[in-house]
Amino acid sequence: MGAGLVERGAILIDADEIVRDLQQPGEPVFNAIVRRWGPIVVAEDGTLDRAAVAAVVFKDADELAALNAIVHPAVGEEMAKRRAAAAERSPGAVVVLDIPLLVRPGGEPIAKRYRDLAGIVVVDADPEVAVQRLVARRGLSEDDARARLANQASRESRLEVADFVITNDGPAAELEPQIDACYRWAAALG
After folding, report:
1. Where are the alpha helices (DSSP H) in the chain?
2. For burial by CB atoms within 10 Å, which of 25, 118, 129, 146 has the most?
């Protein structure tokens, strides 16, 4: 959805991209992860082995909480910096923060820093559609896909915080009118 909003003029700040940047070798987040889980999470080329991290954290709630405690504050700080830079560069522009895990599994927003957002857009998909997409696009087993989804906020919790919902159960062509409407809505927030 972010790319569709960018095509319409929005500035995108992508949490997943920031996570990848912060998890580069030598970065404080990378170092903290390696301190926590050791060389098992380092690939042969010296980068973070994200699959190895996932194998540890998505099967143990305490380990996932430990990873989130390392990653989320750093991502929040970097997002705040990028938001400020975007506002300075392009006053009045629609700035989209793409935050896949904005809501905790219990339904709470992950941090107070996001409560000042003008609005929250939730891209919603039926959980069975989400499982099948994770299997097809990321090569996960169905059990792994279900485990990942089980460690995220429920569909109901995400929809509860939404100010605007994009339904993503069908083909990509069905998204275009919804993205148009979303951009118009976001631009009107001022």
Report:
1. 2-7, 15-22, 28-37, 50-57, 61-89, 127-138, 142-150, 155-161, 175-189
2. 146
Of the candidates 149, 85, 78, 73, the residue with the CA atom closest to the CA atom of residue 111: 73
Query: Residue 79 carries which side chain, given as an amino acid letter?
Result: M
* Arithmetic mean of pLDDT, 158-175: 91
What percentage of the chain exceeds 90 in pLDDT? 67
Percent of residues, the chain, with pLDDT higher than 70: 94
pTM over 0.70: yes
d(CA 115, CA 133): 30
Q: Among candidates 110, 104, 116, 103, which has minimal Cα distance to 162?
A: 103
CA–CA distance, 35 with 141 (Å, rounded to integer)? 29
Tell how far CA 165 is from the center of its chain.
16
